Amino acid sequence: MGLFDFFKKDKESTTQQASLDAGLEKTKTNFFEQLSKAVVGKSTVDEAVLDDLEGLLVHADVGIETTVKVIDRIEARVARDKYVSTGELDRILREEIAGLLEDNNSGSSALLDSAGTTGQPYVIMVVGVNGVGKTTTIGKLAHRFHAAGKKVVLGAADTFRAAAVDQLIIWGQRVGVPVVSHGMNTDPASVAYDAVQKGVEMGADVVIIDTAGRLHNKVNLMNELSKIKRVMQKVIPDAPHEVLLVLDGSTGQNAFLQAKEFTKATEVTALAITKLDGTARGGVVIGISDQFSIPVRYIGVGEKMTDLQLFDRHTFVNSLFKK
């Protein structure tokens, strides 16, 4: 790697950090304004401060179960250290949240490194309800792989919505990658099969399959996703290698409910949490990661193609607590 490559990588890292900081601005502004009010006039972390902190974490959509874990961890530290000042609370909270994410194996996985190294396409099946940014996430994901020099094929298997098929085709044109589509009201499994087959024929590194996200009939959803998996396995026996669930971070507790339903319908192996830039509910990343013990792979912090970022727990927590 030459000097320019190092400079370019450092510049990209700086840009991504700025996007992350901006994307989490609403969450941290709201949280720390409230936290400052909770500790005003107090010198130590006492029961009243912890009660206020608990309310703030729940309000940030960290979730009740995860909030209780965080509070328990802080209470244990206060009991052990005997005296903890309110000035230390930010640091302790940062450390305990990072520790919780560590326990639940949340962090970026080097998909860019693994894609294409096995001699066959790395197949990602993307699931999620309509409106969470699923198709947009696929487009941005395709951009990441394509920019890294990977050959990408997209499969428009959300055939129940014409808009989803058309949108994916537009993303393919924008990014410069082929899209396999049979149009609306066609068999989703057939689209997935042809997309994987095309990926094999053209020596692609990655195949990304969009799927329908209808939760009103979970039995049909489960059957459909199972069928898509089975037909892809006729081409690549261990496909899909990743089942990526896309959740809208701005919906707060509703995102928890969606995660619960989709993990029942299929084996979800990774999460992408979108639209964090438009909400004060960024704590949902922490809660969902903790409660479902599924790695958060990507977070969406803006509209640009580069605003789908690999999730790194330390970078996320540091940005969340940056003032």
From TrEMBL:
An example Gene Ontology biological process:
SRP-dependent cotranslational protein targeting to membrane
Family, per the entry?
Belongs to the GTP-binding SRP family. FtsY subfamily.
Pfam families per record: SRP54, SRP54_N
Quick one: which gene encodes this?
ftsY
What does the subunit section of this Swiss-Prot or TrEMBL entry state? Part of the signal recognition particle protein translocation system, which is composed of SRP and FtsY.
- Tell whether Cell membrane is among the UniProt keywords: yes
Where it sits in the cell: the answer is: Cell membrane; Cytoplasm
Q: Is the keyword Signal assigned to this protein?
A: no
Membrane topology is: Peripheral membrane protein
Q: Which residues bind GTP?
A: 128-135, 210-214, 274-277
Q: Name one GO cellular component term.
A: cytoplasm
Q: What is this protein called?
A: Signal recognition particle receptor FtsY
Its annotated function is as follows: Involved in targeting and insertion of nascent membrane proteins into the cytoplasmic membrane. Acts as a receptor for the complex formed by the signal recognition particle (SRP) and the ribosome-nascent chain (RNC).
Domain SRP54-type proteins GTP-binding stretches? 295-308
